[in-house]
Structures are given as C-alpha cells and as structure tokens.
Design brief:
- With about 375 residues, this protein is an all-alpha fold.
- It contains 16 helices and three strands.
- A three-stranded antiparallel sheet has the order 1-2-3, with helices on one face.
- Helix 5 packs parallel to helix 7, helix 6 packs antiparallel against helix 7 and helix 8 packs antiparallel against helix 15.
- The longest helix is centred in the last third of the chain and has 33 residues.
- It is globular and about 70 Å long.
Length: about 375
C-alpha cells in the first residue's frame, strides 16, 4: 500500500518565518522608513544616487532585521562575550595601527577598511546584559563597579580616536543597562545634579571661558569650539556656527504646515549643510513644518513605547535589560540628532534613525531592531 505525502504550499512553509513578529513595532518602523524615503527623495534627488542608495540600505536593514529576528535570545547571549572581546581588541588595534582621516583615527584596514567602534554600539549592551544576567539574584555594589569598568574601557578608546558621537551612543547604551539592572537613585541623583550645575555654570560663564587663549582640560580645540558655538552661533556665522544657524533657519521657516514637498528653499538652494545625513531633520522640518515634525516625533515615541513594552514583558533578565537598552539607544539617536539640528545640543555625528542617509548606521539599526524583534518573537512563541 503506497502512501502519498502532500507537500505543503509555499505560503505554509514561509509562514513560520514570520510567526511571532510584533506587528505594532514593525508598523512603526515601516512608517519611519516611509518618511525617510519621502524626505530623502526631496533632499537628495539631485545629490547623485542618494535616494536609490538610501532605498537599498533600507532594504538591507529590513533583511537584517528579519534574519536576526530568527535568532533566539539564548544564542544572542552566547555571542555577547566574544563580540565584546573582539570589539575591544579591534579598538586597541585601531589605536595602534588605525587609518587616520581628517585628524581622526577611527578606521582599521583588515583587507577592507572598517570602523570597529560601530560594533560596540551593540556589543556593549549585549555584554552588560549578559553580566547582570549572570549576577541575577546576588547583585552587589562591586558588580556595578565591574559593569562600569567594562563600559569605560571601550568608551575611553573611542573618545581617544576622537569620535564623540559614537562614544555618546556606546556610553548611553551601557548606562541604560546599568540603570535597568537596578542602580540606586542615591547614586544617580548626585550625578544628575552635578551635570545640571556644570551646564548652568557653562552657560553663565560662556563668554569668558570661550576665549581663544582659554584651554579646556581633556577636550580638543574643535570640541571646545562646538560647545562655544552652541552657546552663541553668531560668534562664527560663516564657520563653525554656520551649521546650527542654517538648521534653525530652515526649521523656523517651515512654519506650522511647512513649505510643501520639494519646495524647501533652504534645502534646495543648498544652504543646509549635510542635508541628506546629519541635518536631514532640518530639510524635513522646512518642508513639512510643525505638524509634520510632531508627526515624526509621534512615530519615534510610538516605537519607543512599544520597545519598552516588549522589554518589560520579556521573560529573562538578559532580554529585559537588552530590550530596554536597545530601545532607549534608539531614543538617544533621535533625541541627540534633533537636538543638535535645533541648536539645543552640540553638533555631533549622530544620524536620525531611518531618515538620515548612511549604510553603516542603517545596518546597525537593522541589527538592533532585529534583536528587539527576536525578544518579542521568543516570548510570543513561548506563549503559543
């Protein structure tokens, strides 16, 4: 007696790959991607192949997201230590044998030129989440000290390159893990208070300490100029203050509803520097105005809220810490970029997630959101 086995149709074989995905999170990312494509078409249609390349980078990030989402969090946990170790080793190699461009030693030639600091944006929260998972139920002050040392080593190496923007992202990713692990507010509040006092003192004494003959300890001249230009961009309107001034003009000229798609004069007359990368938010705000900006912020807020819900519902300490850190790092990307373009924060090289042009940043975001989707997917599959 012969038995005939029917081969299931293609859609049944593909369906398990998509099962368990968090649809609200995916929807939020798709909307952000759509906004990014519209903005890039307007800001970069006459900028070579920027729009086409941006679309390609977005598809690559989407593919990476789906691929990483198939990896269970248990396997992500296993690569935490090796990934961190390799990342720090590459940073040390960069300091010793790195490629220097425009006064910064950020790249390493290993057959191809890579930027090792990008690896630490993900390796850092993975490593600290692994550390606190191992110490779960027996946390002591010493454990937080060890976590701080694990964080400060790569941050110090990146600051030395120098690359302040990437250092901020690595530092914030690690600090989020430490905070979510249960760091006492008794230790957090004094630091916040000291930071507030330092900022107030900086603003009040800006005219005096920004003189050319005044040297700032532990900071390079260009970093000092960035801060001083933030305090008063008009001191160098055609130099270091040009980016901030033009960004604020573009945002303000958008008004309540914007000038309209493809009608941004500051953008298309090329007054906005880096209008497809770091300052793409200024181009967006000029054309879509306050209402469009509020809509964009609402999209970022939705992704932030959904990511925190996923982290809060995660089943293990590792997934909770990792999910929370990845979500808050995404928030840091958006907050710092919009803050620097608006003249609230110093200008640092941090892109606007899924809006700014950049292959490396898009791949990093795809990996981060893929890990977050993996956490959500693992919980849903466990429940089913």
């Amino acid at each position: 007696m012969s038995v005939v086995l029917e081969r299931p149709p293609l859609w049944r074989r593909v369906l398990p790959v998509f099962s368990g995905f968090d649809l609200p999170l995916l929807l939020g990312l798709v909307v952000l991607g759509g906004i990014g494509l519209v903005t890039m078409y307007s800001a970069g249609y006459d900028h070579g192949t920027r729009f086409v390349d941006h679309g390609r980078n977005m598809l690559l990030a989407l593919f990476i997201l789906f691929a990483v989402a198939q990896v269970p969090p248990q396997k992500l946990m296993r690569v935490a230590v090796p990934l961190y170790t390799v990342g720090v080793a590459l940073l040390v190699a960069t300091a010793l044998f790195g490629v220097t461009k425009k006064g910064a030693t950020r790249w390493l030639n290993v057959g191809i030129v890579i930027q090792p600091s990008e690896l630490l944006k993900l390796a850092m929260p993975l490593m600290l989440a692994w550390w606190f998972q191992k110490r779960e139920g027996q946390l002591r002050t010493l454990d937080f000290i060890v976590a701080g040392l694990l964080l400060l080593v790569p941050v110090g190496l990146v600051v030395k390159q120098p690359d302040l923007g990437t250092a901020i992202l690595i530092l914030s990713g690690g600090l989020y893990v430490i905070y979510f692990a249960g760091l006492s507010w008794k230790l957090i509040l004094p630091v916040l208070l000291a930071g507030a006092i330092a900022v107030a003192a900086l603003v009040m004494s800006g005219d005096r300490i920004c003189q050319d003959d005044v040297k700032w300890p532990a900071m390079r001249d260009y970093q000092k100029h960035r801060v001083c230009t933030l305090l008063d961009p008009t001191t160098d309107p055609l130099g270091k203050g040009f980016h901030i001034i033009q960004g604020m003009i573009a945002i303000g000229s958008g008004g309540p509803t914007g000038k309209g798609f493809m009608k941004g004069t500051q953008t298309h007359l090329e007054f906005i520097p880096e209008r497809t990368t770091d300052f793409v938010f200024a181009a967006y705000a000029e054309e879509f105005g306050l209402m469009g900006t509020l809509g964009l912020i609402a999209c970022f807020t939705f992704v932030l809220a959904r990511g925190l819900v996923i982290a809060a519902q995660a089943p293990t300490a590792f997934t909770r810490l990792l999910g929370g850190a990845l979500t808050m790092s995404f928030f840091t990307y958006a907050m710092v970029n919009m803050g620097m373009v608006s003249g609230i924060l110093p200008v640092v090289g941090i892109p606007l997630p899924f809006i700014s042009y950049g292959g490396t940043a898009m791949v990093t975001l795809g990996l981060a959101m893929g890990m977050l989707m993996s956490i959500a997917r693992s919980r849903r599959l466990m429940q089913s």
